[in-house]
Amino acid sequence: MERARFAGFKANEFKEGCEEFARGHVAVLQKYKITNITTNNLQWFTHPGMFVISAKNTDGQVIGGIRLQSIYQGYKLPVQTAISYLDPQIDEIIEAYPKYKTAEICALWNSPDYAKQGVSKLLFHAAIALCPIIGIESLVTICAEYTVKMVENVGFKTIRSIGDNGLFSYPTPEYQARVLVLDDVLGMPDCEPEIRGHMMTLREHNFDTELTKPTGYNFIITYEYRELPREDRLFKMG
């Protein structure tokens, strides 16, 4: 059975982890000839409200990752940068959410070597499980049509007022995407029971545990905070 380690850290406290994440993400984007993703830059390394989860295999190779970028004074979310040209109301929608307590899930990727093994889903679930621990209460994300079921299964809802009943072209014309929100990250009332149970287990153990075959996938995963002193395990804003 495959083993993996999902390590969470605050971006501006662990540059090496950010660099490893970025190299893997860029390689995957280049493989699919996608170069205009708005999260594909290095400015997030020093963002004071950026949180990262990276996945490594037993050989220490980064095989996937995901980021949580909180609404932070002076910074736009990637979703705003990505689609404000299409629909300026995205800024009003985001600004209605409380700063520091709302974040965007972005930059989800996994190595092609681990395609269809559930790494992306497990990273997505881990990011949502982590939210209460770092003070996040609501989420927004851009979702491609081929991953919408994964997002909706957790309870995200499409913002229908954007694009054509919620759909728009992104990041290239051949892809359809949508913006979705999850207003209650703590309770997750519309989340599928099995997934909700997995995430609640991570929260109960303060993201410091090992799970075997979470939600049915063939992995043993160690979840942990990385590069933070034991006495300061909780992420801090600023």
Number of helices: 6
Structural class: alpha+beta
- What would the principal axes of the Cα set say about the shape? globular
Oligomeric status of the shown chains? single chain
SSE string, helix = H, strand = E?
EHEEHHEHEHEEEHEE
Number of strands: 10
Mean pLDDT: 88
CATH superfamily: Gcn5-related N-acetyltransferase (GNAT)
Radius of gyration: 17 Å
Strand share of the residues? 25-35%
Q: Which CATH C-level class is it?
A: Alpha Beta
**Fraction of residues in H or I helices:** 10-25%
Explain the overall architecture:
By secondary structure, the chain is of the alpha+beta class. It has helices at 15-31, 78-83, 89-95, 119-130, 148-152, 193-204, and strands at 2-10, 50-57, 62-70, 102-110, 138-144, 157-158, 168-169, 176-182, 209-212, 219-225. The protein has one domain (2-232): Gcn5-related N-acetyltransferase (GNAT) (Aminopeptidase), CATH 3.40.630. It is 25% helix and 27% strand. Strands 1, 2, 3, 4, 5, 6, 7, 8, 9 and 10 form a ten-stranded mixed sheet that branches. It is globular, with a radius of gyration of 17 Å.
